[in-house]
Each structure stands twice: as C-alpha cells, then as structure tokens.
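Good morning C.,

I know you're traveling, so I'll keep this short. The sequence:
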Amino acid sequence: MKDIQSEPDYRNIAINKVGIKDLSYPITVLDRNKGEQHTVASINMYVDLPHEYKGTHMSRFVEMLHLFRPKVALKTFADILGQMKAHLNAASAHIEITFPYFIQKNAPVTHSPGLMNYTCRLNGSIDSNSKVDLVSEVIVPISSVCPCSKEISKGGAHNQRGMVHLKTRFKKFIWIEDMIELVERAASCEVYSVLKRSDEKFITERGYENPKFVEDIVRDIALELKADKNITWYSVEVENFESIHNHNAYAYITSGPKPAF
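The tokens, ready to paste straight into the viewer:
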C-alpha cells in the first residue's frame, strides 16, 4: 500500500516535535514500601521531523510501548528513547509520562488510614548525540498558615491549601516518597485524606505554630536540595490558593536554566 507519510515534503521546514499526546497506558512504578505499584499514565511521545519528510509513523509510538510494557525506571527511559530515534529515523526523541501515585498516610492522632494521591511526572529526552536527559517531578498538596495574619490578629490566622511543584535532575535513583516527604516537611502542615476531630485539632494547632509564607516554603525546600549531592538540578514552585484574597500567592526557585519540556 502507498505510504503517504514517507513521501518527500518540499516546503523545507523542519518540525521540532511530532508524535502522540494523552495516551492512557498502564505502567509499573517502583514503590518504596511495596516494591512496585501499578497505575495508569498519560503519555506524550515525540520525535523531530527533518524538513525533507512529509510525516512520521504515529502507530510506531504505541507499538514501542506494547513492546516495553513500561516499568518506569532510568534504564527503561533510555531504552525507549533510543528505540524511538532508531525506529522513526529521528535525531531526537522526547517522552513525558504523567501518573497518579498513591501513598497510605495515617492520621496523626487516631492513625486512621487513608490513601493520598500525588501527581508525578517524568520528562525524558535524547539528542542527536544520544545524550539522555531525565527530569522527575512531584506535585504535592500542602497547608500553610500566614505569618503576617498570625502576627496582627488577636486570635487565629488565615490558612490555605497550596500546591508545590518540585522538579529534579539527579545522579542516581531517588524515591518518589523521599521527594514528597521533603516537600511536606517544609509546609506549615501536611494534607491528609482521612481526619477525625482529634486529628483536625492536632494539625490546625501544628500549622498555627508553624506559619510559612510561600517564600519560606520554597527556600526551605531549596536548602535541603542544595545539601543533597545526588541532586544536580532543581526547580521549586509554590502556589497558595489564598483564602482571603482574590489572587494566589506564588514563589519560584531554580538552581539553573529551566528545561525545555
């Protein structure tokens, strides 16, 4: 059958990324406590397209996933990216995997069990020199109490839920749980899925005694990352969904240029 995609293109314009987006696919992720965790990811896969080619073969992206049956790990990423380059005759390749990751968290007083889900993302690329780059991201909900509100109020202080985006590059494997716990330590208080009244009392009081601006949170996270010799690059974003303002509070720190994902 005639292959239109393999025909030449005469417009003389290369395409930076071409491929598939938002493919739901089951993957296996390393779990610090249970060994492995099965989840469903949303996957984007791209390659570059030279100016002389009309199109790429979209079905080959999915075929490669079926061959690898992805277990998310550094070696798997490198293998998939290399195969994408080879099978699609590309100079570079990119893959983005976003998935929910579940951790059982017990309430602080009653120890009632509940599952917390965190959004995780892995962005990988391979260039024309076969150099592989991988950036890991965790998105962690937190709670913060405003130090200024506490200082000026006769009683109480306004608090809000926030979201932290932590991205890292690293020399050797890091656990998802370690990055999540690092973020939660920097907040006024953690977020839980199940809380009884005694738990609510505990975390409300703990947050009140540990007020944090978004500036405090990004700096405290950055301090820990700077001290970790395994981390070669990081970026931290904190956004608080303000409870008494018609805007959100935001802070961002990076150790270097932002990756082009």
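Safe travels,
E.
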